[in-house]
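hiii so um. not sure if this is the right channel but i have a protein structure encoded as tokens and i wanna go backwards to a sequence. like what aa goes where. can anyone help
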């Protein structure tokens, strides 16, 4: 692979298949989520090596709140553990943390830890790691529409100032470039309410492995596949 040619600037990953991985190993689902933490490290390292500027990880969806409370709390504990144990590495690697989603729905302790790592890493600029937490694209778009409606109602902007760029600037991803490459693990071919607006022209690569089995080499393979694609953007 040519590491210097056409590296996606932004990779987004739907980390799926932890439960099925656990089942295949005769383990409880929470063990699958725990094993998936190692894959997160691998994905970050691969992006660092390639010189990718933005990595967005779908860690918890709006719909995932409907899972059994024990699984939800196991996921929150894992997130806390990740934040606690990774902060030094993130500083060393020059990684800035950011989060998108309805963060006010997170438990207060988890939210405080998240805010702390975001503040601590704010000055890093080699890679931006975006965690999608309690994230749902329809919620995000609806929220933006409400905000914009209020701006118009108050006379702050005129309705004809609502352009796609302006609309995009009101989403949680404001300031982030759109993903170039969207990876989903575990073979599932759906987007599950993830970045619906932002992935308009992303190239999709479906990986036939459960998330806990995902390694750096899988990122490289996906980028290689991406480099073979011809992005037309509706043109010829
Ligand atoms: C992805 O794995 C992690 C989250 C959605 C939080 P799943 O938990 O969805 O695993 P499967 O899809 O049931 O195997
Ligand atoms: C998408 O996976 C959400 C995350 C990876 C966090 P799900 O497992 O929740 O999606 P569905 O239910 O298969 O669509
Ligand atoms: Mg799943």
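sure thing!! here u go:
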């Amino acid at each position: 692979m040519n590491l210097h040619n056409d590296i996606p600037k932004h990779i987004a990953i739907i980390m799926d298949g932890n439960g099925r991985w656990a089942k295949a190993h005769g383990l409880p689902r929470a063990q699958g989520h725990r094993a998936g933490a190692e894959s997160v490290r691998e994905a970050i390292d691969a992006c660092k090596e390639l010189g990718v500027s933005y990595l967005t990880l779908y860690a918890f969806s709006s719909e995932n709140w409907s899972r059994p409370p024990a699984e939800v709390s196991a996921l929150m504990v894992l997130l806390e553990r990740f934040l606690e144990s990774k902060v030094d590495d993130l500083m060393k690697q020059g990684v800035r943390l950011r989060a998108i989603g309805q963060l006010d729905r997170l438990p207060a302790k988890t939210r405080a830890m998240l805010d702390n790592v975001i503040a601590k890493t704010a000055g890093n600029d080699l890679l931006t790691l975006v965690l999608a937490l309690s994230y749902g694209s329809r919620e995000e778009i609806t929220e933006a529409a409400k905000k914009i409606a209020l701006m118009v109602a108050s006379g702050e902007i005129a309705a004809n100032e609502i352009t796609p760029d302006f609309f995009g600037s009101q989403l949680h991803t404001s300031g982030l470039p759109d993903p170039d490459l969207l990876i989903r693990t575990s073979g599932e071919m759906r987007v599950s309410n993830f970045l619906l607006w932002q992935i308009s022209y992303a190239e999709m690569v479906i990986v036939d492995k459960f998330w806990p089995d995902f390694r750096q080499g899988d990122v490289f393979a996906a980028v290689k596949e991406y480099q073979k694609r011809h992005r037309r953007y509706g043109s010829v």
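oh and Residues 30 and 74 are 6 Å apart (CA to CA).
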